[in-house]
């Protein structure tokens, strides 16, 4: 029975991580729409949180299955590995939030999870085949975001070249509400699924796999019937939405104005559409993508349309280094978290 209490506690911790994910990545969702002054910070987080939650009823759960089954050998996973992975992800998110660096909560959770598994079973616990698309998208997502951001911004500039600037700005202030909503929709569906995958893996490791499976009357999304229990889906999306509503204002400035100053509604629209498209493509491919990578690359691409000097490349360099450090950083903390759980928590459970 005590192990069941630990399972419930870890589900709560997973939802706390999901809250931190929304909190930490709130800046990604609202930075452009706040920087362009289309919405106030309060309005922006409510707008983003709404779409974070609505995503539960639209998309499937393919990304969650990738997290639970394809990155780490299920035979190497126990409740203490899950505990260590969550510790690694949460601690890394807090560290990077304090440093005001927009790193990826997505990569933090999979790195913490992998680090904890390695701490228990060694490197053979890692399923290399499952990591290949993750690494590929680590490299490609900011590039795709930047190319799409540049392309959309260039196309919009050409299409509106004969329009008065005032009318164009007013039109795109309305359109940016749509693009910000689409971005938050993608953010919600891809990021919430990472926590779903962790909870499903936890239940399987604890011998309660059936609790995580959808019942015969489970609701459907556009991508078909959900394979995960509705209580997991809704609780993960709700936790993320609440985290987004709490905001992560330390990072807004980095994404919204330090990368490329003087971002306007037209640029905000282009960046958000580019990022939303990148995230949507990855979600369809069932790959856990970094929404931070997508929006950061998109903002860089939009800024580059005004010439190389319109982008503060030093901030892009700092963000890239922060992204690179997430894998070893969160992984090491995850391994330490597993050691703590194994040596300090497990004796009480066994006793």
UniProtKB/TrEMBL annotation:
GO terms for cellular component: membrane. It is a multi-pass membrane protein. It holds the Pfam family PHO4. The chain crosses the membrane at residues 45-67, 79-100, 106-123, 130-153, 228-252, 273-300, 320-341. The keyword Transport applies. It is found in: Membrane. Keywords: Membrane, Transmembrane, Transmembrane helix, Transport. GO terms for biological process: phosphate ion transmembrane transport. InterPro entries: Phos_transporter (IPR001204). Its main location: membrane. GO terms for molecular function: phosphate transmembrane transporter activity. This is Phosphate transporter. The lineage of its organism: Bacteria, Pseudomonadati, Acidobacteriota, Terriglobia, Terriglobales.
